[in-house]
Amino acid sequence: MFTGTYTAIVTPFKNGKLDESAFERLVKTQIKAGVDGIVPVGTTGESPTLDFEEHIQVIRLAVRFAHGKVKVIAGTGGNSTSEAIYLTKAADDAGADGSLQVAPYYNKPSQEGMFQHFHAIARATKLPILLYSIPGRCGVEIAVETVDRLAHDSVNIVGIKEAGGNADRVSQLRAALGLNFTILSGDDALTLPFMAVGAQGVISVASNVIPKEVSRMVRAFAMGKADLALKLHARYYPLFKDLFIETNPTPVKAALALMGLIDEEVRLPLVPVSAANRAKLKATLIACGVID
């Protein structure tokens, strides 16, 4: 259902407020570049620093600006089950195509707690749900056994964004869940290794900056053109890495600002990248042919 390239799109700000015109430009750029969808208000969209009203407004705008030309998978997870249900229902009302549900963070539930959390959300909506396992940020991993249990328990839990940095886990997930369950890479640098063992695309940070190129790489590998995919991976690998030179999404916002697409503005406790790292990122963007 959700295969290919999905951009974990940034939330642009201007003077502390959502910059709606910049957001529209970004979405239209993604559509023109040929991505399969966008994922607003995830980690890259700075969801932790948006209030509920802003969070829902970003989803509404994403749906409006996408205008049915690309899919919109709304980030509506949380470490409070009731909060996640509230946001997911709002995303459904806004016309989103799916929901991305991150593992509960900070409170570190047991596997049974995570099962009950996702089970409750799935029962509260008809939206297709992608789970999101990112232990580096959440402190917990959604175990393969829990993913398998959830997929068999809830027909609308259709896939997972896998961001644990381990290709072996992709193999484990594929073996447990079969070919109908979607697995997407959550790390640009690992998209090709993950696809080689069964993933079907990526939820990408880099495609904010190079949407056409990431889409081309993913599509090439899916069509059996591994040599072309590897060539594109090698060319843009330095950018894949440097977009995480500091905490995401500060580097990708710096890159987009260098491209003249948004203001380089984040909300506390995030701060803009250091001058030294901005210079390094700019050099990488030039070397990769993104800017002159």
Tell me briefly what this model is.
By secondary structure, the protein is an alpha/beta fold. Helices cover 47% and strands 13% of the residues.
| Strand residues, percent | 5-15%
User: What's the CATH C level?
Assistant: Alpha Beta
If you average the pLDDT, what whole number results? 97
Question: What's the SSE pattern?
Answer: EEEHEHEHEHEHHEHEHEHHHH
Number of helices: 12
Multimeric state of these chains?
single chain
Weakly predicted, low-confidence segments: none
* The CATH topology: TIM Barrel
For the record, the CATH architecture stands as Alpha-Beta Barrel
Shape: globular
Characteristics of this structure?
two-stranded antiparallel sheet, alpha/beta, TIM Barrel, 292 residues, globular
Topology:
Layout: E1 4-7, E2 13-14, E3 17-18, H1 20-33, E4 37-38, H2 52-66, E5 71-75, H3 81-94, E6 98-102, H4 111-123, E7 129-133, H5 135-138, H6 144-153, E8 157-162, H7 167-177, E9 182-185, H8 191-196, E10 201-204, H9 211-222, H10 226-242, H11 250-258, H12 275-287
Helix pairs in contact: 1-2, 1-9, 2-3, 3-4, 4-6, 6-7, 9-10, 11-12
